[in-house]
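Appendix B. Raw example, untouched.
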Amino acid sequence: MTGRSITLTPDLNDYLVANGSRPDEVVTDLIAETHAALPANATMQIAPDQARFMTLLTKIVGVRNAVEVGTFTGLSALAIARGLAPGGRLVCCDVSEEWTAIARRYWRRAGVDDRIELRIGPAAGTLAALPAEPYLDLSFIDADKTGYATYWAEIVPRTRSGGVILVDNVLQSGRVIDPAATDPQTRAIRDFNARVVADERVELVMLPIADGLTLARKR
């Protein structure tokens, strides 16, 4: 098939980030602290170009009500919160007090902590407790891959027509197309991707940003 995306070398990726709105000091420091404090888990943090994309998309959609599943050290929440319309709110779901303590500090430093409500506990329960009507403008799923189907099932009915859902890590570092990759997370993502592309409630595109990002719009 022709017209495929270009392969990003490290140097080309650096150019992309530098010429697509450079990360400010808050983002740069958050990334550095995450890598220093949590080196074994730092890859869970979204890429800086992805963060900028999410801020811009949040502004384009005019988001007032947003939900995030999987907060880690807070870069994705910071990105969304910076794009919220006046009076907008973001509910974050996570299970780690330790990791989100870093997030809280950077949210305060960026001046967006008043727009974010962090709820500690299993995300499935947090989502199920949200209002049942379709009111969400934007949601971001980036947590345990085996839970994606559950989170999707809770979020789609709560998303308004024209609202968007972002789902991270849908390529699993390329393992989704490797028949030898049979680990639970990869199998869960394969099943999830197949389910979502067949979901007639949404229209979507899978973008080659970072580890693969699905952008779905509620019909």
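End of appendix B.
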